[in-house]
Design a protein that fits this description.
By secondary structure, this protein is α/β, with parallel strands linked by helices. The protein has ten helices and eleven strands. Helix 1 runs parallel beside helix 10, helix 2 crosses helix 10 and helix 6 (139-150) packs across helix 10 (272-287).
Length: 293
């Protein structure tokens, strides 16, 4: 059984990006510039955005944080997005989700210029991904592909079961694992809350991607011997065994599932570190205009 070290792979990729930025700087080229829009002061969003700013500093990117109050009108937020669309110095930007209830996520995502949509959520990028055309891939699925590729996990002809159908992880992962490429060429089954015989379906999986958001949902009796398990879930639960009083759990009951796996991602330290790294990869592509030329 091999534990997939997302922290290590993330470090490797960020070092590669940093080396490329140094070359760009030495040749007098344009330094990649990522912006993030943060609406309100949601604690988790503050942490995520703070991590993105630090990652930009580490690899040598320019970064801009646009803070807007939680009371900002939808119209004013859309105006700010339009400004960022027109700012030639900014290569890519994200609007951190979730947004306040009075603002439509859909309107916000559709207002972002697809060429600067480094989160990969715009319908144009989703459509290009579905057609296996060059596009900005959603960060978490992109990070998962990197883990599979760098650990040289075989995917061709394998049965891949995805648990969860969110637009952020489950749905794009099902498309990417079925595409005619590596990683890909799997026979994919996407499952969800209405799926019947879930255990039977999971037991047919060579690769299980679990993105449900329910702590320790997947137990050993769902997994056959030798399965690759990618745990995307992360839930904070109270714990009297940690200094903080909290611990992080994945969607997989790790201790009992891991012995049956050929490869498994831990939580924390598996998929999580790859999300910001994938965002940096998309931003570097945007600065070099690799996708839309």
């Amino acid at each position: 059984m091999t534990v997939i070290d997302g922290k290590k792979i993330s470090e490797e990729i960020q070092n590669e990006i940093s080396a490329e930025v140094k070359k760009i700087r030495s040749s007098g080229g344009k330094i990649p510039h990522l912006a993030a829009v943060l609406v309100g002061n949601d604690g988790a969003s503050e942490t995520y955005v703070g991590g993105k700013v630090k990652a930009c500093e580490k690899v040598g990117f320019k970064s801009t944080l646009v803070r807007l109050p939680g009371t900002v009108s939808e119209n004013d937020l859309l105006k700010k997005i339009a400004e960022l669309n027109c700012d030639n110095d900014i290569d890519g930007f994200i609007v951190q989700l979730p947004l306040p209830k009075h603002i439509s996520d859909r309107k916000v995502i559709e207002t972002i210029d697809p060429k600067k949509d480094v989160d990969g959520f715009h319908p144009v990028n989703v459509g290009r991904m579905a057609l296996n055309l060059p596009s900005y891939l959603p960060a978490t699925p992109y990070g998962i592909l990197q883990l599979i590729e760098r650990y040289k996990i075989e995917t061709t002809g394998k049965n891949c079961v995805v648990i969860g159908r969110s637009h952020i992880v489950g749905s794009p992962m099902s498309i990417l694992m079925a595409r005619n490429a590596y990683p890909g060429n799997c026979t994919v089954t996407i499952t969800h809350s209405k799926t019947k015989n879930l255990k039977e379906i999971c037991l047919s999986a060579d690769i299980l991607i679990v993105a449900l958001g329910k702590a320790e949902f997947l137990t050993a009796d769902y997994v056959k011997q030798g399965t690759v398990v990618i745990d995307v879930g992360i839930t904070r639960v109270k714990s009297d065994k940690t200094k903080s009083g909290w611990k992080l759990l994945g969607d997989v009951k790790y201790d009992e599932v891991a012995p049956k796996c050929s490869f498994i991602t831990p939580v924390p330290g598996g998929v999580g570190p790859m999300t910001i790294t994938a965002l940096l990869m998309n931003t570097l592509k945007a600065s070099k205009m690799e996708i839309y030329t």
